[in-house]
C-alpha cells in the first residue's frame, strides 16, 4: 500500500524539524496547512464524513511531542502478567483499518494520523534511561498506537532508530507490523539489537477483519527478506479470533509460517486473544457491519476488558501452542495480556519459571 496523505498539517514548533522537511520533500503535490486548529479541522471532517475515524487516517499531522516518550506497556493492567515491555509512541493512528483495532475508541478525540517529528528528544531520553540502568534489559516497541512500518517510507523513523539501537548494550528495538514495507530495513547494513515481528492471522481473517493490510503471503515474504538480511524475527498471533473452523485455519496458518521460516529463525511467538473495552463494541458494529467478531460470547476480565470465556481462551491457547510445539518444542512462546490463571492453565507455569523468558518478564 503506497500511502499518499490527502493533506499535511504542520503544528507550531514542528516547522523546522529535519523530519518535517523530509516528509514535505516526499509529497510536493500534497496541500500543506500550518498552525490549523485540529479542533476546527475535526469539526469540518465531522460535518462532511459519515466515517470520521476512517477519514482522518488520510490527514497527516506533523507535531512535536511535549512529554516523555518512553512508557511501560499497558499490559501492566490489573490482574495481567506483564512482559516488561516498553513502548515509544512516535505515531498515532494507522493507515490500516482492522475491525478489532482499539484505536477506533481510544483516539476518538484526536483521530488524525499524527507523526511526532522531535525524534532527537526521544534519543536523548532513551540514552539517559538505558545508561541509568545498565543491568536491565529494555525491550522497546513502537507499535502500540500505530503499525511500526506501514508509514516507514513516508516518515522514515527507522533510519534514525536502527543505528541508535545498534549501539546499545542493554536494549533491543522491536518493530511490530502487518506491513511489507521493509525497504529501509533492507538498506540498513547492521541488524544488531533489532527484532522485526509480524502480526499474523489466517487468510480469511486478513481478508475480512484486517482491511487494507498486506496478505499473509506478503507479510511472510517480508519476514523472510528481513531474516536473510540478518534481523531477528518474531511473530504475534494476536488477536486470535474464534470462528467456525478456527482450529484448522490456525493449523494451516502455522503450516504456512513454517514453509517460509525455520523454527531457529524465530526469536519468539506471542499468543493473544481478542479483547476490547465496552465502548469499542458499538463502534465496531457501526464501522464494520460485516464483522464476525461478536459471534462468540465475551465476558469482562480483571482489567475491565471483554474477552472470550476463560475455557474458550484456554482451549485456543492450548490448541495453537500444541500446533507450534509439534513443529519444534524449542519455540519461545508467551501469552500477551493474560492472567496468571491462564498462564498456569495453558503452560503449567508462570514465565519466571522459564529461563528463556525470564529476562523479559516482570512479575
Structure description:
- This protein has 363 residues and is of the alpha/beta class.
- The protein has one domain: pyruvate-formate lyase- activating enzyme (Alpha-Beta Horseshoe), CATH 3.80.30.
- Helix content is 36%, strand content 20%.
- It has an eight-stranded mixed sheet. Strands 2-1-3-8-6 form a five-stranded mixed sheet, with no helix packed on it.
- Helix 10 links the parallel strand 13 and strand 14.
- Helix 10 packs parallel to helix 12 and helix 12 packs across helix 13.
- The radius of gyration is 20 Å and the shape is globular.
- About 2% of the residues have low confidence.
Sequence-ordered SSE layout with sheet pairings:
Layout: E1 7-10, H1 18-26, E2 32-34, H2 38-48, H3 52-56, E3 59-63, E4 70-72, E5 85-88, E6 91-92, E7 97-98, H4 103-106, E8 113-116, H5 119-132, E9 138-141, H6 158-166, E10 171-177, H7 183-187, E11 194-199, H8 203-209, E12 210-211, H9 216-228, E13 232-240, H10 246-260, E14 266-273, E15 275-276, H11 278-287, E16 298-300, E17 306-308, H12 310-327, E18 333-335, H13 340-347, H14 355-358
Parallel strand pairs: 1-2, 1-3, 3-8, 5-9, 9-10, 10-11, 11-13, 13-14, 14-18
Antiparallel strand pairs: 4-5, 6-8, 7-12, 15-17, 16-17
CATH architecture: Alpha-Beta Horseshoe
Main pleated sheet: 8 strands, mixed
Low-confidence stretches: 352-358
Helix content range of the residues, please? Answer: 25-40%
N-C termini distance: 40 Å
**What is the multimeric organization of the chains shown?**
single chain
CATH topology (level 3) name = pyruvate-formate lyase- activating enzyme
Residues in β-strands, percent: 15-25%
Compute the average pLDDT: 91
Structural class: alpha/beta
Strand line-up across the major sheet: 4-5-9-10-11-13-14-18
Query: What's the overall geometry?
Result: globular
Q: C-alpha Rg, in Å? A: 20 Å
Number of strands: 18
Amino acid at each position: 500500500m503506497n500511502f499518499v496523505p490527502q493533506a499535511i498539517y504542520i503544528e507550531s514548533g514542528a516547522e523546522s524539524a529535519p523530519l518535517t522537511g523530509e516528509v514535505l520533500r516526499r509529497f510536493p503535490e500534497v496541500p500543506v496547512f500550518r498552525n490549523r486548529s485540529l479542533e476546527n479541522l475535526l469539526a469540518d471532517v465531522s460535518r462532511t464524513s459519515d466515517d470520521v475515524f476512517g477519514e482522518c487516517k488520510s490527514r497527516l499531522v506533523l507535531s512535536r511531542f511535549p512529554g516523555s516518550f518512553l512508557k511501560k506497556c499497558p499490559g501492566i493492567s490489573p490482574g495481567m502478567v506483564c512482559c516488561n515491555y516498553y513502548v515509544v509512541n512516535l505515531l498515532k493512528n494507522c493507515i490500516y483499518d482492522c475491525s478489532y483495532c482499539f484505536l477506533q475508541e481510544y483516539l476518538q478525540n484526536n483521530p488524525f494520523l499524527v507523526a511526532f517529528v522531535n525524534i532527537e528528544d526521544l534519543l536523548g531520553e532513551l540514552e539517559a534511561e538505558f545508561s541509568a540502568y545498565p543491568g536491565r534489559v529494555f525491550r522497546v516497541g513502537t507499535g502500540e498506537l500505530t503499525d511500526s512500518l506501514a508509514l516507514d517510507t513516508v516518515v522514515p523513523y527507522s533510519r534514525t532508530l536502527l543505528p541508535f539501537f545498534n549501539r546499545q548494550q542493554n536494549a533491543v528495538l522491536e518493530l511490530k507490523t502487518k506491513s511489507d514495507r521493509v525497504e529501509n530495513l533492507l538498506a540498513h547494513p547492521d541488524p544488531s539489537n533489532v527484532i522485526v515481528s509480524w502480526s499474523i492471522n489466517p487468510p480469511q481473517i486478513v481478508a475480512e477483519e484486517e482491511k487494507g493490510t498486506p496478505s499473509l503471503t506478503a507479510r511472510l515474504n517480508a519476514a523472510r527478506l528481513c531474516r536473510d538480511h540478518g534481523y531477528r524475527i518474531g511473530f504475534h498471533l494476536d488477536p486470535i479470533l474464534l470462528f467456525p473452523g478456527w482450529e484448522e485455519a490456525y493449523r494451516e496458518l502455522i503450516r504456512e509460517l513454517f514453509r517460509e521460516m525455520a523454527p531457529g529463525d524465530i526469536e519468539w511467538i506471542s499468543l493473544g486473544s481478542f479483547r476490547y473495552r465496552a465502548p469499542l463494541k458499538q463502534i465496531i458494529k457501526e464501522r464494520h457491519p460485516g464483522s464476525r467478531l461478536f459471534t462468540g460470547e465475551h465476558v469482562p476480565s480483571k482489567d475491565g476488558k471483554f474477552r472470550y470465556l476463560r475455557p474458550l481462551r484456554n482451549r485456543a491457547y492450548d490448541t495453537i501452542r500444541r500446533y507450534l510445539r509439534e513443529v519444534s518444542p524449542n519455540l519461545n512462546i508467551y501469552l500477551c495480556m493474560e492472567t496468571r490463571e491462564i498462564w498456569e492453565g495453558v503452560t503449567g507455569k508462570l514465565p519466571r519459571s522459564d529461563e528463556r523468558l525470564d529476562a523479559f518478564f516482570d512479575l
